[in-house]
Write a structure and sequence with these properties.
heterotrimer, A mainly alpha, B mainly alpha, C alpha+beta, A: MetI-like fold, 13 helices, C: Rossmann fold, OB fold (Dihydrolipoamide Acetyltransferase, E2P), 19 strands, 27% helix, globular, Trehalose transport system permease protein SugA (chain A), MetI-like (chain A), transmembrane (chain A)
């Protein structure tokens, strides 16, 4: 169904979305690039001229840079490992015959819909507070000393909070993928004499491969830019400063726009590397 | 089902799944319960689960302390406005891509997706600057536009995925039956796509409602939505678990309910159709 | 009125020419069937006539006026799609009314035509149902009803029966044929099923890879296929094509003989072979015979009462006046 008439109509109807997104992408990006080559301190003299790649070098050589990269990697890696691992197990469990499956689904998916600021605050205060948090009571109950979560185990705390938020997403996607597995394939494998573990390893897991990749890539994109969870818990203290948070601090707290913009360019490059892989997978799906 | 499952196994599965489901849901449940306790009961040692005197005092206190209504209103306007605006722009675009695919359709779709991956922090300052330039810092209109733009790729994708499932022959039939392009979209496509459009609306409303980077950074007193309302409770000024819980419950309750309705669409929506 | 004339019409998708320039005239009131294997361009040709695709070159005349650039809605044609393409959110009544609503037909007239169509198609009791609540055959009738009420100058059918099961297909085939007799309107019907083509058509157009292989009445195609492709495509079971010495002995590089044109004997004949599979249909039996004249298996149609089985020896004599001869290029020689 493609006549000249419908094609030109189509172009016209696509235009607003394309133009808006093009603007949204190009204008701020150009500005960020522009600032990244300048010494620009709005509170302390404003535009102080071109500095070449100075900001890029300074951003990378600052003492905060590598720790922030490490922190980012730990959070992203930790959350991915927990959500994908538990997600697979949970998806398999939920795929088993049981009573009230729909109800369990509703329980499991709920955290995804909770505002990041809310979940961070609830966890920080009501669970991880060393004096009044539920965990403190639990530890005391077993005779252990309550953990100072936010200061002593700050990174783990954030990983736990973020994992709780993203586990539903991973579970739901993996469950959907498992449910699309052709029942006859498993039956055939069983007829061929494959025991349950082998059926899982040779049929279910490969079938989940793509879903797992999609979960990892999409979560990575969101996790690279988590913000609210850190903002309301530690505020970047106690070694929880991610790359995103570091840039945020450079831009808004220390008002060093040039430096922050250079960091932003790094973040954009990082996100694009992940994005390229995601595009490939989604793109392949488009042909199918 | 080809196979009889033993009753025992089903009981074990059910118990396990309900147990884990309860654990995952527990923080939300605990928050809701705590919101009905007194502050003293909220921090009681050992913790009280159900045996407390239910009270609405915290809700009253929260409503008194801050203008909850205004935050709520801002959230509704920002999330609703950005979603509706996004749908209006995305429906024609998705129609074009689904029914008149060209050589570059796929590239355009993927490119749209790639704008979604632009890390917000990378362009925070330029946007901040632009908002000041246009005098829209701390205004709802700025957030409506920004959240519309960051969610537009998802909206286009979701609608595209739904539209692609509508057989092209039906639209061709309408064309043969004498419908103009406008009539085709109005009388045939839109009514058929209503379920898809509704779930797109729902999911994007949720995403916009919960968005916390731009809403925290670009608002102050006037346009702050519920994300900021909650964030204001992060400064430690004494013990107020019950009030925090009440505020939290008020912030998440509407969206949690909407979320449960849209959970089915969540998968194909957020994976851009890569997992169905 | 409903004469459709294609002049040097061609269609390319990008660099791929799916339909090379062709000429074709469909006379008013004629039931024309486009038939060919999948991918032969028959559906594309129909869509070009409908106006759902632009033609790359040439022009289309409908009733003597150039319709090349007329949008589909204005061509006065009605189409029945393979998937029926009913509007799922509308009742049967509204589905049928839709084209009239678009054309601004007055309400009473709409009502009258809906009632008439529903009566003719046995849909009166279903007018207030949704398409989802109907069976395949009923949906098919609704699609036809939607086409009829427009009172088009020609009907276009795109493989309308391929989604029905075998029994329904035969019934619908008859209904469509009867509809044609009653309305006497031009119909163009696309199918890959040569049985549908043979049983319904006034005129068959055999297509392969975008080229028209032959145009003619069903019996012309059956008795005088222009080339080996048409010979093999029309008729069921397929014509046996024989190459080699047995063919040359009968004066052509390739000869063709239809399964029903053999004299069969268990004792004597021109060729001897062994029965591989015998398919008993009751009225007829199809024998697949090995070891005959370089055509393996040779398909032969015999009377259902002939008692033969796998492994039997059998003798065949082709009826000389029913032989088809083809030259080295596969074209018919008389």
């Amino acid at each position: 169904m493609a006549t000249q008439h419908s094609r030109s109509a189509a172009r016209l109807m696509m235009a607003p979305a394309v133009v808006l997104l093009l603007g949204w992408m190009l204008i701020p990006l150009t500005m960020t690039l522009y600032f990244s080559f300048k010494k620009y301190l709005p509170m302390r003299g404003g535009d102080l001229g071109w500095v070449g790649f100075d900001n890029y070098v300074r951003f990378v050589t600052s003492s905060a840079f590598w720790p922030s990269v490490m922190t980012t990697l730990i959070i992203v890696g930790g959350v991915l490992a927990i959500t994908v691992g538990l997600g697979i197990l949970l998806a398999i469990l939920l795929n088993q015959p049981m009573w009230g499956q729909g109800f369990v689904r509703i329980l499991v998916i709920a955290p995804f819909f909770v505002m990041p600021t809310v979940s961070a605050l609830v966890w920080k205060n009501m669970f991880m507070d060393p004096n009044y948090g539920l965990f403190a009571h639990l530890w005391e109950f077993f005779g252990a000393t309550p953990v100072q979560w936010m200061s002593q185990a700050s990174l783990s705390s954030i990983v736990i909070i973020v994992s709780w938020q993203w586990l539903p997403f991973a579970t739901l996607i993996l469950l959907t993928a498992i449910q699309s597995l052709d029942r006859e394939q498993l039956d055939a494998a069983e007829m061929d004499g494959a025991p349950a573990t082998k059926r899982f390893a040779y049929i279910t897991l490969p079938h989940l491969g793509r879903a797992i990749t999609v979960v990892i890539l999409i979560q990575t994109i969101f996790l690279l830019s988590i913000f609210a969870e850190i903002f309301v818990t530690t505020g970047g203290a106690f070694g929880t400063k991610t790359l995103t948070y570091l840039i945020f601090q450079r831009v808004l707290e220390s008002q060093n726009i040039g430096l922050g913009s250079a960091g932003g360019v790094y973040a954009i490059i990082l996100a694009n590397i992940v994005a390229i892989f995601l595009m490939r997978i989604v793109g392949k799906n488009l042909d199918a | 089902m080809a196979r009889a499952v033993t009753r025992q196994r089903k009981i074990v599965n059910t118990a396990l799944a309900w147990g884990i489901g309860f654990l995952i849901f527990f923080p939300i449940l605990w928050t809701i319960l705590t919101s009905f306790k007194t502050e003293a009961q909220a921090i009681a040692d050992p913790p009280i689960f159900l045996g407390f005197n239910w009270t609405l005092a915290n809700y009253e206190a929260v409503l008194e302390r801050s203008n909850y209504g205004r935050f709520l209103w801002n959230s509704i306007i920002i999330a609703g406005g950005s979603t509706v605006l996004g749908i209006l722009i995305a429906v024609p675009a998705a129609w074009s891509m689904a029914f008149v695919p060209g050589k570059r359709t796929k590239d355009i779709l993927l490119w749209m997706l790639s704008t979604k991956m632009l890390p917000a922090v990378g362009v925070l300052y330029p946007i901040y600057l632009l908002c000041i330039q246009f005098g829209v810092l701390d205004s709802k209109i700025a957030l409506v536009i920004i959240l519309m733009l960051i969610n537009l790729p998802i909206i286009v994708w979701m609608l595209y995925t739904y539209f692609r499932e509508i057989p092209g022959e039906i639209l061709e039939a309408a064309r043969m039956d004498g419908a103009s392009l406008r009539e085709e979209v109005l009388y045939v496509l839109t009514p058929m796509a209503i379920p898809g459009i509704a779930s797109t609306l729902l999911l994007n409303f949720i995403l916009a409602w919960n968005e916390a980077f731009w809403t925290l950074n670009l608002t102050a007193a006037k346009a702050a939505p519920l994300t900021a309302f909650i964030a204001s409770y992060s400064s430690p000024e004494g013990l107020f678990y019950a009030k925090l819980s009440a505020a939290s419950t008020m912030a998440i309750a509407p969206i949690l309910i909407l979320g449960w309705f849209s959970q089915k669409q969540l998968v194909s929506g957020l994976t851009f159709g890569a997992v169905k | 009125m409903g004469q459709i004339k294609l002049n040097q019409v061609s269609k390319s998708f990008g660099d791929v020419e799916v339909i090379p320039p062709l000429d074709l005239t469909i006379e008013d009131g004629e039931f024309t069937v486009f038939v060919g294997p999948s991918g032969c361009g028959k559906s594309t040709l129909l869509r070009l006539i409908a106006g759902l695709e632009d033609i790359t070159s040439g022009h289309i005349d409908i009733d003597g006026t150039d319709a090349t650039h007329v949008p589909p809605a204005k061509r006065g044609l009605a189409m029945v799609f393979q998937s029926y393409a009913l509007y799922p959110h509308m009742s049967v009544r509204k589905n049928i009314a839709f084209p009239m609503k678009m054309a601004g037909v007055p309400a009473e007239e709409q009502q009258r035509r809906i009632e008439a169509a529903a009566k003719a198609l046995n849909l009166t009791d279903y007018l207030d149902r949704r398409p989802g609540q109907l069976s395949g055959g009923q949906r098919q009738r609704v699609a036809i009803g939607r086409a009829i009420v427009r009172e088009p100058s020609a009907f276009l059918f795109d493989e309308p029966l391929s989604n029905l099961d075998a029994a329904l297909r035969v019934g619908m085939r008859l209904e469509i044929s009867e509809l044609h007799k009653r309305l006497a309107t031009t119909m163009i019907y696309v199918t890959h099923d040569q049985v549908e083509a043979m049983t319904m058509a006034d005129k068959i157009v055999v297509l392969r890879a975008g080229y028209i292989e032959q145009v003619g009445t069903p019996l012309e195609l059956y008795y005088k296929p222009r080339n080996e492709f048409v010979a093999g495509f029309i008729g069921s079971p397929k014509m046996n094509l024989i190459k080699g010495p047995e063919a040359e002995a009968r004066g052509a590089p390739t000869i063709g003989i239809r399964p029903e044109h053999f004299d069969v004997s268990t004792t004597e004949g021109a060729w001897e072979g062994t029965i591989g599979v015998a398919e008993h249909l009751g009225s007829d039996t199809f024998l697949h015979i090995h070891g005959v004249a370089g055509c393996d298996p040779m398909t032969v149609r015999v009377d259902g009462e002939l008692s033969v089985k796998h492994g039997d020896r059998i003798f065949l004599t082709p009826q000389a006046d029913k032989l088809h001869r083809f030259d080295a290029q596969g074209l018919r020689v008389e």
